[in-house]
Task: structure prediction
Amino acid sequence: MAQKESILDRPLNELERRLLNDFQEGFPLTSRPFRTIAERVGCTEDEAMYTLQQLQSHQLISRVGPVFRPNRVGASTLAAMEVPVERLQAVADIINRYGEVNHNYEREHRLNLWFVVTAANREMLESVLHEIEQITGLEVIDLPMIEDFHINLGFPLQWV
Amino acid sequence: MGMIGNASSLICDPLDRELVQAIQGGLPLVVNPYAAIAEQIGTSETEVIRRLERLLESGDIRRFGVVVRHRELGYRANAMVVWDVNDKRVSEIGRLIGCQPCVTLCYRRPRRPGRWRYNLFCMIHGRSREGVLNNLQALIRKCGLERIEHEVLFSRRRFKQCGARYVTEKESRDPIPSVNSLTAE
Result:
């Protein structure tokens, strides 16, 4: 598959690394957050903002913003399906059309399609799962979180 | 036990919900991002910042910052490890696994008898499959999990990854194909 030109074609510079690593939590809640960041990492406000824009447009970061505690803002679940291999792409495409679906992966298992569904409430979530079952004719296994054991402080990146 | 998706557990304040709506996809990367959000929902920048601080303090926002995309940063191996833990010990084991540095998520989920037997899930990201498996072996030794049945589900294709969108009742979604258009493929 052809790769488009990206920041990944060269080693990330020090500023990019620090922006990726040091602000996964505690992003400044100030009127001009990029100025606050710039003061901390020693660059200009424009550089901080532009570099984050670049990292985002090259898809190294998915967003700058909140990670919510599960089931406080809405309802979510992890769903699993056993999909015949020849239908996998088509079924994945159907599932991806739902705005409620934010992750969707093929995994090495008899249950080979795993996706996360998030909706305003449990009823809407169930209606999405039900609809997917109706459309695909395949069973969806609903595995909502019961207990969360991880304190999510971001992902420490190691540079090679 | 936590209540799952119970309406009483949701953030209810209307302006908080509007704020969540406006910000769930990420901040606009402009000089005054909170002012931009404030304008969108018809309030002041100070109010947006104050509410975000409160949501962080209450833990409703777990963290606020840069959300990286693992694959694009070279962490191409991503394993969901699922464990069949005695229900009496699942919280204890979950807390133990959840604080290991190589683990990025650790949740208890229900079993579905006859269809799914595992009740504890964790995620391990790494630069290679081998690296992930080495981390897993180290985790098993360190936490004494040798006798707990587990499976490792590496990801293959990623069909979608984006931030969670707590779609509201007002929002419509893309039309979905009919049963006929699917079976025709």
Q: What stands out?
A: Chain B touches chain A through 98 residues (CB under 8 Å). Residues 13-58 of chain B form a domain with the Arc Repressor Mutant, subunit A fold (CATH 1.10.10).
